[in-house]
Amino acid sequence: MATFTNxxxxxxxxxxxxxxxxxxxxxxxxxxxKHSLATTYKQGDTLTYIVNIVNTGNTAFTNLTLTDNLGGYxxxxxxxxxxxxxxxxxxxxxxxxxxxxSEAQIVYSATATAYAPLNIExxxxxxxxxxxxxxxxxxxxxxxxxxxxx
Length: 150
Description:
15 strands
């Protein structure tokens, strides 16, 4: 986030006095959350994710791009993905518009693949990133779904 510094200067009869220096941080008015409808998975399960993009500002955000890394991790010389989607990996949705003081909701499903860790402490952690017009730093959200204990 961007920061700013503010100091006031008072001048009277040739005397100049500065106020205390205040530093603040400019907050973006766009935020995102990601949730899974399932709390656990097994190989072959369908995982449904819900992403909410909330705009609390008075200006619309247009032409946004949502990218989901689908929990990809390095295996051997490449990257494998625990959940699979029709378009990807990574999964990318473009052209998202969020009007002022409103919310956009995106729902999508993925299938737990053979690369989904199935051990007792296994999990799939997906990270989304939202970029686009008017966003100074990418917006991120994460969701973790744990392997079902058998």
